[in-house]
Write a structure and sequence with these properties.
By secondary structure, this protein is mostly helical. The chain is about 75% helix and about 0% strand. Helix 1 packs antiparallel against helix 2, helix 2 crosses helix 6 and helix 6 crosses helix 7. It is globular, with a radius of gyration of 13 Å.
């Protein structure tokens, strides 16, 4: 919870998926087996929610496996780009071109490819 509060202090308009993803990642709230088991159908069927859909503060967030996919996104950014990049995402969550040198759709596809491995 402290991490989520801190993110809100840094950027009050940070999307839900950033707050939930970093909070869950830092707290290790879900096991690797749980995340894998609960998302494998969606990954196999290429039903991975977009970043826009993951910015959903309703019960749909849980239904679409938002906690798991947000966690995976944070993991993806840290493993592929580093913690400094994640810090940039917190501060400028919609600057995909500036941070990742690609569009939002291209970054989402990179995440899909990462999840399919």
């Amino acid at each position: 919870m402290f991490t989520m509060w801190l993110i809100s202090e840094i950027n009050p308009s940070a999307p839900i998926w950033i707050r939930q993803g970093i909070g869950g990642y830092e707290a290790k709230q879900m096991t690797e087996d749980f995340i894998k088991g609960s998302t494998e159908d969606a990954i196999r069927n290429l039903e991975i929610p977009s970043f826009d859909k993951l910015n959903n503060d309703t019960w749909d967030f849980e239904t679409m496996k938002g906690f798991q996919f947000s966690y995976r996104f944070v993991e993806f950014v840290i493993e592929q780009y580093g913690v400094d990049t994640l810090n940039e995402v917190i501060r400028n969550p919609h600057d995909f071109n500036g941070i990742f040198q690609c569009s939002e759709a291209e970054l989402h596809q990179k995440m899909v490819d990462y999840l399919k491995r």
